[in-house]
Amino acid sequence: MTNPNNATITTVHRAEFTASDALKIPTLRILQDDGSLYDGATAPELDKDTALKMYDTMVFIRVLDERMLAAQRQGRISFYMQCLGEEATTVGSAAALSDQDMIMAQYREQGALRYRGFTLEQFMNQLFSNEKDLGKGRQMPVHYGSNAINYMTISSPLGTQIPQASGYAYAQKLRGLDALTLCYFGEGAASEGDFHAGLNMAAVHKAPVLFFCRNNGYAISTPANEQFVGDGIACRAVGYGMKAIRVDGADILAVYQATKMARDYALKHNEPILLESMAYRLGAHSSSDDPSGYRSKEEEALWRKNDPIARFKAWLLKQGWLDEAADNAKTEQLRTDILDALKVAEKVAKPGIEHLISDVYAEPIPALQQQLDELKAHIHKYPDAYPITAGRLD
Amino acid sequence: MTNPNNATITTVHRAEFTASDALKIPTLRILQDDGSLYDGATAPELDKDTALKMYDTMVFIRVLDERMLAAQRQGRISFYMQCLGEEATTVGSAAALSDQDMIMAQYREQGALRYRGFTLEQFMNQLFSNEKDLGKGRQMPVHYGSNAINYMTISSPLGTQIPQASGYAYAQKLRGLDALTLCYFGEGAASEGDFHAGLNMAAVHKAPVLFFCRNNGYAISTPANEQFVGDGIACRAVGYGMKAIRVDGADILAVYQATKMARDYALKHNEPILLESMAYRLGAHSSSDDPSGYRSKEEEALWRKNDPIARFKAWLLKQGWLDEAADNAKTEQLRTDILDALKVAEKVAKPGIEHLISDVYAEPIPALQQQLDELKAHIHKYPDAYPITAGRLD
Amino acid sequence: MAKMNMLQAINNALDLAMAKDDGVVCFGEDVGHFGGVFRATSKLQEKYGKARCFNTPLTEQGIAGFANGMAAQGMKPVAEIQFADYIFPAFDQIVNETAKFRYRSGNEFNVGGLVFRTPYGGGIAGGHYHSQSPEAYFAHTPGLKIVVPRDPYQAKGLLLASIACPDPVIFFEPKKLYRASVGEVPEDYYELPIGKAEVLQQGKDVTVLAWGAQMEIVQKAVEMAAEQGVSCEVIDLRSILPWDADTVAASVKKTGRLVINHEAPLTGGFAGEIAATIQKMCFLHLESPIERVCGLDTPYPLALEKEYVADHLKTFEAIMRSVNF
Amino acid sequence: MAKMNMLQAINNALDLAMAKDDGVVCFGEDVGHFGGVFRATSKLQEKYGKARCFNTPLTEQGIAGFANGMAAQGMKPVAEIQFADYIFPAFDQIVNETAKFRYRSGNEFNVGGLVFRTPYGGGIAGGHYHSQSPEAYFAHTPGLKIVVPRDPYQAKGLLLASIACPDPVIFFEPKKLYRASVGEVPEDYYELPIGKAEVLQQGKDVTVLAWGAQMEIVQKAVEMAAEQGVSCEVIDLRSILPWDADTVAASVKKTGRLVINHEAPLTGGFAGEIAATIQKMCFLHLESPIERVCGLDTPYPLALEKEYVADHLKTFEAIMRSVNF
Ligand SMILES: Cc1ncc(C[n+]2csc(CCOP(=O)(O)OP(=O)(O)O)c2C)c(N)n1
Ligand SMILES: Cc1ncc(C[n+]2csc(CCOP(=O)(O)OP(=O)(O)O)c2C)c(N)n1
Ligand SMILES: [Mg+2]
Ligand SMILES: [Mg+2]
């Protein structure tokens, strides 16, 4: 008899549940804390330049996060989100991609963004919502995006990028591009209905997407064990008929290796793959959050030792690819550069009033143009109340 | 180190994908076509009365479906949906429940409804949207429901009942009731985001829900292999940390046994379980559908042989519990009864005009009352245009 | 020219769009081999292959998300939502994502190529889950365009314009008219303007405004009014967003009166927006209150559909109330 | 009486409701131990246990579906949607399910015990995903009630009334006022009526209508107008659905003029419904067009928030336009 149910029908005659933990997915670990490899592990092929670019990106992001969190505390920017503890996760995965691959991120993936080449000035312009911001000052800080480097502009609603990644990748396949889409999301966002829709559609329509879950243990205050009961996120893959792989998110060699392998496979077979990177959100959720309300300093302290940058640095030193003194000097210089860039960006003007209505449509619809004209007249009447725009109405 | 990621961390040092088919779930089969049991299978404990009630329910539904589909073709009702081929699935599972358990159905579960005691008159009144319909003539035919027998009124939007079942069962648990919720849905509806939300929430909040997927191979014209890639629906359970069991949906003993076992477990442990019943939607999707546009007569013919009623009948005969002649006479009588009830119900008046606005709120809000008053005045002016209500405006 | 019903006109439009631009891809539940439950995509899979016309899994939020992604890549997805009543699971993807995609990115990315097609409206004994007219839910969303055709000719021209449009469009198809509305339709490619209302009949006493399937109904009412010596100006709004306030206002300035008809419930329906705008634009010209003839403020009923709907008699009464004020 | 800010008043209302009825259960993202990202459910888990105040997984459609199920069983879920901007994934569960639950079953089942609480509105530099005012999206939905408080006293009384109400309620909390609005609040249980507007200030020249956080803004405008010798009648609508047309109409019949202010974009916003209704109810009394002062028809901006919002100056201008027409 034909099987219309799309399932493998094997038979048993005694009722027995399939256990809730019937599937166990191991975690790939290559690099140890001291920079040596685990027994039986081999490092991925990685040339010195790439390795150093990865390292520099992690350091850049670490320093940027420190500085901008401080800037937020000083009231210079309104909001910030760090990625402390997850630098290897996003840099290692981004490094395994081709520049033509689209990246769709959640918000904590500045590592990937920087790896792609987003400049310090671009970071700053976005964070200060100034007129040089590619996003025209429309979104809260950290909602970066850039067409030129194939990094989709971030959107705050969680999970929405997941089915979008499936559609984007399907289009890449239809266009015959040698490129796929990598989609980052948190283990919290993986609870959204869009997760289910996105993974299932990618599997059914054979879209080359790397679904990359950053399982960092928390969604704001909600610990992962109040988010789901299954064994992490990776075990969901089998439900979609998808391959999966889990990595230690503080181990950049493991992240790189797994992503590279997944990319090759996905492109070759036009199949999505689910990756899960296990890490810990070491900082607060955002500058608006205070984790002391929901977790202990002891827990944080334990994880603070598990530093992805220190681990990679130890490896690089072992390889003889890193000069520690030069590196320290470079980091110092970076601190200065960032502060300088910050000072420049905060003085750049806000976007002009025409950008209140531009990009709502390709061209403003008449009613909207009229609203802008009326607004301009109003500002002319009360210039003091609208200092940002009053002086330059045209 | 503590593990905040809520996953079992076992380590490997060589990258390897977890296979997309790493989990295989067998199908429970107890009863063979000839009424004998499979080797190694034992029949569930089932007394004669219950077994005959199950059988009668299946026959009732089969005859009702035949008659009402004919009535729809004659233009007497506007719409109908059969459950041909799935009678064992819904009757077997309903029979394994307590009457206090809530049933939340999709629309093709008239077997469960009848088993619960929905009367022939109640079926008819709903199908004819008359004033005796418990639902006050507001929903299309087959959208049954009854508070008295704990059968939630059906709603057309697919999948919405799934997270509702989780909430309902959570409330049952909080109330300390010795009852759970059984939630039916199709393998098509299982693609909705609500499926993901509902299963995950039930697992996290330990709500006693039996998620019962009727995998009948089709969602209207869409075959299951264009609906998902995974191994059926049951394999998704592991992603939610949930137990699962799969049964042959034409084998009422297997369905009954699995549901009973799942109910006991779920109530005892306050845990949801996912059941998958493999059957075939032998009829059209609905009276508006014509399957010849998307599947072959040959495929249907193969499945027509796999008749759940004939199979169960063979077993009952073997048990010596069924008298074939008496049974045939009873079925004949049923045909007459149904036709009689149909003739009565189609003559019952439509709901009165007050039910145009009742139940939108517990009490009509003023604006709505005013709209009704204006409408009545309007109908008074044009009575011929509104024959259903004009004669009895009060 | 050929005689086509609305489904054929829509199918023909999709066919021409797919032939013209291989970025046009049609998908949705049952849209593939079967051609959709209403058969609007009939034969398109045969003609353009499974990659460009296909069934999706049963998930409206997934369909919308997938469509957003494809459009962001530069393709032109034409996604079908099987019934407008089932568009709500996609609401977040449409209202928070589709509508804001270009704006939020500062035009780094856009989903301008996207069209959602969806059958809407009552008159088919469908009850509240197969009859809704949800245009007003979307009309409060800057970034979207919303189009509703009244007949096959309009359907083809407006759908082709929607696909060509650089902004995302929700295209509501009056399913009651799918087979019932038949007319002459040019076989070649043509577009009709989005954002322009059409004056179907000149009149001097009162302006009567509607869209989609309600056009037939207001025509009936207008004929009844004519028998009473009332001269109606009849306007088909065609686009709900943007909507053509200038054409409506010009008419109302002439007639001094306005009756708006729509299928959706009164409260929060789009007639409210129109009335609010027109009372301001035409304050000194209005000779009677603007009348709204709409569905009652209840879910769409089944048994009492006739009583519920904004029919020609209620419209006629409103016209007469308006002129006799 | 005690001095409370709006968050404390809401927290106090939830506390009283949970103490009074063990069917009341609070949940949502981060609502449990942490007490919600704004801390509205602070200490409730400690006091009433994890079973009655808990975190949910991150899924608004799940939260709403779960709440529907609990309410159908007879409990009184008070579900929090972390930001009103994120209520859209729950749109289907709310608009197609919550709103129609009682109606579609012929009252066999209902979800009358259900309340959705959600912080809405701008003024916190949140951009378009932390500033939306989506009340109009829901106001087109028969079966729902919609309430918006303006201060702590109102918040407590209206929230308790919402929980007691036999119909499902969406309770929009102006998050800008969470800590900023402080006032005297009785410590005991009390309810304020749903569906009744409140006249905050009598006046004779023009009626000024708003709700929620905009009340403060219109008050400022009204003071400016008073300096110009204009006497404004000020109304807080409080309930959007049902809305108190009679109170508004009585006021407009007196003043002859109406200015409506809301945060949401103009087109399709609830001011349209109000204007459409009032122009009909008060046609012969209106001395100038009804004015709407609303957000622009764009997503809520970030850098140019000041320019975008329906502020006191724009409201003042509208008042003056109205009286000088
Ligand atoms: C649809 C939606 N609901 C709620 C929020 C509010 N919110 C922002 S971040 C967040 C937690 C996300 O956690 P996770 O996905 O694990 O990512 P992480 O912050 O850990 O990187 C929540 C609830 C949102 N942005 N979107
Ligand atoms: C949200 C939603 N989308 C689409 C539909 C239209 N629809 C009704 S039944 C159906 C197919 C359902 O298939 P399945 O869940 O497998 O159940 P079956 O009909 O096989 O019993 C579809 C697409 C709907 N009712 N609700
Ligand atoms: Mg997380
Ligand atoms: Mg099916």
From TrEMBL, chains A, B:
GO terms for biological process: branched-chain amino acid catabolic process. This is 2-oxoisovalerate dehydrogenase subunit alpha. GO terms for molecular function: branched-chain 2-oxo acid dehydrogenase activity. It holds the Pfam family E1_dh. It catalyses: N(6)-[(R)-lipoyl]-L-lysyl-[protein] + 3-methyl-2-oxobutanoate + H(+) = N(6)-[(R)-S(8)-2-methylpropanoyldihydrolipoyl]-L-lysyl-[protein] + CO2. The branched-chain alpha-keto dehydrogenase complex catalyzes the overall conversion of alpha-keto acids to acyl-CoA and CO(2). It contains multiple copies of three enzymatic components: branched-chain alpha-keto acid decarboxylase (E1), lipoamide acyltransferase (E2) and lipoamide dehydrogenase (E3). Transmembrane segments: none annotated. Keywords: Oxidoreductase, Thiamine pyrophosphate. InterPro entries: Alpha-ketoacid_DH_E1_comp, DH_E1, THDP-binding. It comes from Alishewanella aestuarii B11. PANTHER family: 2-OXOISOVALERATE DEHYDROGENASE SUBUNIT ALPHA, MITOCHONDRIAL.
TrEMBL record, chains C, D:
Residues 4-180 form the Transketolase-like pyrimidine-binding domain. Its EC number is 1.2.4.4. Keywords: Oxidoreductase, Thiamine pyrophosphate. InterPro entries: THDP-binding, Transketo_C/PFOR_II, Transketolase-like_Pyr-bd, Transketolase_C. GO terms for biological process: branched-chain amino acid catabolic process; response to nutrient. GO terms for molecular function: branched-chain 2-oxo acid dehydrogenase activity. The keyword Oxidoreductase applies. Its cofactor is thiamine diphosphate. Transmembrane segments: none annotated. The keyword Magnesium does not apply. Pfam families: Transket_pyr, Transketolase_C. The branched-chain alpha-keto dehydrogenase complex catalyzes the overall conversion of alpha-keto acids to acyl-CoA and CO(2). It contains multiple copies of three enzymatic components: branched-chain alpha-keto acid decarboxylase (E1), lipoamide acyltransferase (E2) and lipoamide dehydrogenase (E3). This is 2-oxoisovalerate dehydrogenase subunit beta. The lineage of its organism: Bacteria, Pseudomonadati, Pseudomonadota, Gammaproteobacteria, Alteromonadales.
